[in-house]
Amino acid sequence: MYSSPYHISGFWVPVKSDNPMTTGSLGVGILLEPFIVAHNNNNSSCSVSINGTCVSIDPIKFLITENKVNNISLSVKSTMPLGAGGAVSAFTSLAVACEILKSSNITFTTNELILEASKLAHKAEVLSMTGLGDVIAMVTGKGLVLRTRPGAPGIGETISIGTRDDLVFTLGLIKNNLTTQQMLISMWDKINNIGRQVYNEFLKNPELETFLSLSRMFSRKLGLLEEKFEANISGRLKRFIARGSIAGFFVKKSLLIIAHDRNSSEEILQTTANIVDKVLGVYKLADRGFKIELDTT
Which of 98, 249, 258, 282 is 20 to 30 A from 226, comparing alpha carbons? Predict the structure, then answer.
């Protein structure tokens, strides 16, 4: 069985080279649990299913075609939908890459398997333009993750930053039809310019509160957090902000992320339900990344 926290980038700087292994991003994101999980589903004719629905996405098709395999069958369980902004695609690519390597004639230790699989998954994500920094964050980080060098694991570099442990994150789905691929194609220069400014500002004071404030600025300047919607959120959360329960909020693709103290969770869940299309639940910072576990299913 494979498990991993979700990865939500607050801001990033896309870095492109002529080699997918050195292509990636600088940036900062959070790894959240409860974990997304996947296990082998030998009786299925579907390569990958997510919450019971068979899916076909570009990085998975790339991995299967490039490695000439046809016996992959994984069942993924996720509290976040594919494409929302939680790196479900990256996790699925990692799990598929692990299955591909397991089916080869090469013997790996668990750490070797994860490293080699992460390189395959990173390449698939980059070439499919579905993610630039999710794989390395999921494999090498925990909690708040700073990506200091772009590229696949083994090439890129990350730093996990210690944070306060009294905060949790309420997540909700909002309407946003812009995919990662569309964002990278249509907004590359804009993301690069704004991302570079925000990233450099974070380095001056690399803390969770700084991350939350700059992520909100980044999502606003990119147009992901529209002024009217931001005002609505602030108004709805006004009483929590006044009493110091809210640490910050921002938008990533189809996700609204609200960071707050644990004691306010139930109230904020109820309030969030009036802001978003669907409340996903309360998450916490994860103390580990991607892991291969004994499959007990």
Answer: 282
Cα–Cα distance for residue pair 257/139, rounded to 1 Å: 22
Q: Which amino acid is at 102?
A: K
Q: What distance in Å separates the CA atoms of residue 258 and residue 245, rounded to the nearest whole number?
A: 10
Cis peptide before 34 (omega within 30 of 0): yes
Short-list 149, 87, 86, 94, CA closest to 119: 94
Alpha-carbon span 292 to 237, nearest angstrom:
39
- CA 140 from chain center: how many Å? 13
Taking a C-beta distance cutoff of 8 angstroms, is the pair 9, 252 a contact? yes
How far apart CA 155 and CA 23 sit, in angstroms, is 10
Report pTM: 0.96
The residues pairing with 252 across neighbouring beta strands, listed in sequence order, are 255
Strand ranges, E, within 216-269: 246-252, 255-261
Q: CA-CA distances (angstroms) from residue 201 to 141, 197, 281? A: 21, 6, 30
Amino acid at 51: N
Which residue pairs from 46-50 have beta carbons closer than 8 angstroms and sit at least 24 positions apart in sequence?
A: 46/73, 47/72, 47/73, 47/74, 47/96, 48/72, 48/74, 48/76, 48/92, 48/96, 49/74, 49/75, 49/76, 50/76, 50/77, 50/78, 50/82, 50/88, 50/92
Q: What is the CA radius of gyration of the chain?
A: 18
Distance CA 42, CA 40 (A): 6
CA 27 to CA 200: how far, in whole Å? Answer: 10
Average pLDDT score over residue span 14-38: 97
Output the six-digit token pair for 165: 């442990």
Q: How far is CA 270 from CA 180, 242, 243, 267, in A?
A: 29, 18, 17, 5
